[in-house]
Amino acid sequence: MGPVIATHGLTKRYGDTTAVSDLDLVIQPGEVFGLLGPNGAGKTTTILMLLGLTEPTAGDVEVVGLDPRRHPLAVKAAVGYLPDSVGFDDHLTGRQNLRYTARLNRIDPGEIEGRVADVLHVVGLTGAADQPAGEYSRGMRQRLGMADALVKRPRVLILDEPTVNIDPAGVEEILSLVRRLADEEGVAILLSSHLLHQVQAICDRIGIFVSGRMVATGTIDELAGRLDDRVILEVDAAGPPDAVLRTLEAIDGVRSITRTDDHWRIAATADLRTAIADRLHDAGCSVTHLRRASAELDAIYRRYFTGEDVTGSGDAPARRSEVAS
Ligand code: ADP
Of all atoms in ligand 1, which is nearest to the CA of residue 42? Predict the structure, then answer.
């Protein structure tokens, strides 16, 4: 089976604003793809083009092998969409709302009850199915939204900021449900979010979207590796700070040194732990703490979203030492 989403050079301009620029995106069945970017990056515009709800200015788009501009109904039938806020009839129960959606989607009347019961079970709302939707918590409404998107058994599920305004337990439930749908049902999932930490655990791949451009795609580890060719080390040593700093600065491969509240923080071209320990020892400053920091997602995110060195070209930054007072 081919990809379920494929765009090439997809572009959308509103007057002078380019909301989405030259987007190439391929998503396979069973894959969870996280579209990450700050507000205004172009995530919603991308989703609307995939759904055939807004016309691209240029480029190609295929969803389940079809162009949404030419086959809007077939694409709509294959794609479940959960917008950032879902409207339900609050007087109707969860189950009644889902029956209504099933009828709108022209599901065979003989199948409706079974499908509705199935999706209520999948999202964990069987027990609350016969309560009015107006009495649901935000997390429950979001799960009802997922059920609503799933009633037509879509091959693709598109979720726009599905975890916003949901408590941590609700977030956990939604995200594990997303992962399960991909693994067990082979549904392809496109999840838009500005919350890297929430989605990193369940996404197979992530695309970082800034000002309408997809500046990088890959797994979290690939993104971390591409962005930051440095090794970050934390050091603490007994002895006068000036002497520690001078010793560290003199070590080959040290690119920058900063002082945090607790540690010296060193960006280096390689893992210099042995050299650091030896040289500090020779200088009479015994090492009390030395560790290599793990991939820094916050740093990745900040560097992409503030536009610094987004190509990861490896240009050496000017050597600097900053000592906080
Ligand atoms: P995101 O979903 O990442 O927050 P959007 O896709 O909503 O980003 O918006 C991308 C850019 O396109 C923004 O600069 C936004 O102001 C602009 N934009 C979105 N929709 C319209 C519209 N209908 N008319 C004009 N500009 C729009």
Answer: 6
Give phi and psi for 202, each to the nearest 5.
-105, -10
DSSP 8-state class, residue 195: -
Cβ atoms of residues 296 and 268 within 8 Å: no
What pLDDT digit, counting tens, does each position of 89-105 carry? Answer: 999 999 999 999 999 99
User: Atom 15 in ligand 1: which residue has the minimum CA distance?
Assistant: 40
With beta carbons less than 8 A apart as the criterion, state whether 210 and 304 touch: yes
CA angle (62 as vertex; 25, 216 as ends), nearest 5: 5
Beta strand pairing call for 79-82 and 231-237:
unpaired
Does the CB atom of residue 19 touch ligand 1 within 6 A?
Answer: yes
Rounded distance, CA 211 to CA 37, Å? 9
**Which residue, 1, 61, 65, 3, is CA-closest to 28?**
3
* Phi/psi at 171 (5° precision): -60, -45
Does the pLDDT of residue 9 top 60, yes or no?
yes
Is pLDDT at 290 greater than 60 in this prediction? yes
Spatial distance between the Cα atoms of 231 and 293, rounded to a whole number of angstroms: 8
**Which DSSP letter does residue 270 get?**
S
- Measure the CA–CA gap between 41 and 106, rounded to whole angstroms: 35
What's the CA gap between 137 and 1, in Å, rounded? Answer: 39
CA dist 249 and 258 (Å) reads 11
Largest pairwise CA distance in the chain: 82
**Is-contact 42 81, C-beta < 8 A?**
no
Residue 78: CB atoms within 10 Å: 18
* Whole-prediction pTM: 0.74
What is the 40 CA–ligand 1 centroid distance (Å)?
6
β partners of residue 158: 81, 190
In one-letter notation, the amino acid at residue 135 is: E
